[in-house]
Amino acid sequence: MNLTSAFRDPQLAAGALEAIARTVADYQGRITLMEVCGTHTMAIYQHGIRTLLPPQIRLISGPGCPVCVTPVDYVDHAVALARLPAVIITTFGDMVRVPGSSSSLMREQALGADVRIVYSPLDAVAVAARNPGRKVVFLGVGFETTTPTIAGAVVQAQKQGLDNFFVLASHKTMPAPMAALTADPELQVDGYICPAHVSAIIGSDAYRPVVEQCRVPCVVTGFEPLDMLKGIQMLATQVVEGRAEVENEYSRVVKPQGNPKARELLYTVFEPADARWRGIGVIPGSGLSIRSEFAGFDAARAIEVEVEEPIEHQGCLCGEILKGKVRPGDCPLFRTVCTPEDPVGACMVSSEGTCAAEYKYGG
Amino acid sequence: MKSDVILLGHGSGGRLSHQLLDDLIIPTLSGVTPQEQNDAALLSVGGARLAFTTDSYVVDPIFFPGGDIGDLAINGTVNDLAMSGARPVAISVGLILEEGLPVADLQRILQSMNRAADAAGVQIVTGDTKVVPRGKADKIFINTAGIGVVERAYEISGSGARVGDKVLLNGTIGDHGMAVLASREGLELSSDIQSDSAPLNGLIAALLDALGDSVHALRDPTRGGVATTLKEIVQQSAVDISLEEAAIPVLPTVRGACNILGLDPMFVANEGKLLAIVAPEVAGQALQVMQGHPAGAAAAIIGEVTGEEAGKLYMRTAIGGRRAIEMLAGEQLPRIC
Lengths: 363, 337
Prior knowledge:
The structure holds two protein chains of two kinds.
Chain A: H1 3-6, H2 10-24, E1 31-35, H3 38-46, E2 57-61, H4 72-82, E3 87-91, H5 105-110, E4 114-117, H6 121-130, E5 135-142, H7 147-159, E6 165-172, H8 176-182, E7 191-194, H9 197-202, H10 208-214, E8 218-220, H11 225-241, E9 246-248, H12 260-269, E10 270-277, E11 281-290, H13 299-302, H14 318-322, H15 354-362
Parallel strand pairs in A: 1-2, 1-7, 3-4, 3-5, 5-6, 7-8, 8-9
Antiparallel strand pairs in A: 6-11, 10-11
Helix pairs in contact in A: 2-11, 3-15, 6-7, 7-12
Chain B: H1 15-29, E1 41-45, E2 48-57, E3 63-64, E4 67-68, H2 69-83, E5 87-98, H3 103-120, E6 123-132, E7 140-149, E8 166-169, H4 175-182, H5 201-211, E9 215-219, H6 225-237, E10 240-244, H7 252-261, E11 275-278, H8 283-291, E12 300-307, E13 313-316, E14 322-324
Parallel strand pairs in B: 5-6, 10-13
Antiparallel strand pairs in B: 1-2, 2-7, 3-4, 5-7, 8-11, 8-12, 9-11, 10-12, 13-14
Helix pairs in contact in B: 2-3, 5-8
């Protein structure tokens, strides 16, 4: 048995489920827990965790999928850049299929644009080094897990003296949206399943302000099924006992102070900024922009291009789904107009999107 | 067809591929019904029953751990014939070569095709070669077509699964797709994953000799992986299948590589695997036959046909949860076969 399979052991899982059932046995009322990380969203569906929990516990998905929270005008900007003859777009896979106002990168690729999927931002730097006559734009989307590697790529490009590597930045940070969602009177979140990888960078202490301001339990939780069952039990225990604290289920990886080295690299290149989240709007201090010292690497500043007026699809409930207010099945477009092969909203595109996960695993 | 241009996703083997076939290619060219869409066409010619199939190979890179585009092109067509219960007999080879391809590479690929044909007991009987200017193709594309003889009285197709049947798989999943991916330029995934590219006609002959028409359906889960292939079978047979996640063999290295790249091994391509759907009373015997054959040492019973809820595929997860499995729309890893 390897490490991974130990965290999927059926007997241990049965024990963890019994512990959850005992925890909530005498509790009157519902416990709503939100995960704010796309990998948790996927894992909950993939392991069928909802089908195993007591009915009082409701799991809802928040704005944890980086592709999904990226606003449509960002996709339009990327599409406009892709149409420039000298530009090579480099990106993680999912962004290619996200629909913009009138096109997607996948469509532009079929029409002749040079769009390349890479697995690391450093691969994009290598593409730039091999193509000195072209402008190589990396689509910088994601949370603190990926942003340090993108900062590292910018630093690397600078070291190599490259003047043709750019980042189109739309980075988001945690836990700013958690405070915003808790303040929403229409939503009642009783506890947060806090991200695993993001927390490895920002540290479990980063959730203290959320807990102190909002009085809502936060438990940093790993991605393996047993991690999630344990995290859910820890949250349910806090709710039942009326506590609101930061706890760390994933202490084998996440430290209270996180990874200071990665953050130092991140903040060498980026600085905090207000950011617009698809469906939620602008959240102060919830994003990252490229520092002026690195403006030459910022595609938004360094490459001039006209971007079309953004049009959001009428009827798409991505925004409400990202806030956890409705489930994919409540959206009139789900499975009818909006399908993985012809997605309307980003939530149906990304493998971490709530709609894509519901479509793939839910029915 | 919702898109007015061909997208890479149309070649994924997933739902976009099916859409292209169902909305444009099949209605224009042949009109066969979905129930008749199997790995090979069955024909009656002058009293003889023949199986006929074709496949094109555009894998990138052309050499990968455990195989190359040459043996893949032979094994893939041999396996498509074998899945219909036929004995593969003869194969044609069409080569499209890019100007500048090293002759040594071509020679290595041809030798590999020859070895694969010998191993499968088929003859390469005819062929064609074209050369296109540099940049108009990528090194080498290969098309193979194959003819097989159907010597048994019964037919095997994807529509034969019945309630109660057991689902067997002859070994670990995702090896081919991850071996190809790990050897791609730019993806620094050091691993020892080998492609499973292999002929399956010997294993299928052994299964049919032992079990006869208790074998209800056979299919090789290539592009789109085990999930897509089983989804095709539940749709063709109008049944539902429940799988046991814990029973599905996956190499730890393949699972690890999939985790890193965010892939589900259930959707990753195989080139030496088969899914056999057999009557429940012979399932134990079928497993023994598979495990006793070199191409099936790690075989397992991975699920069963549970009901007539047409077209549904379910997974009981390792921790006891339950979920549905749908075909992917497209995929991010084109050109793996």
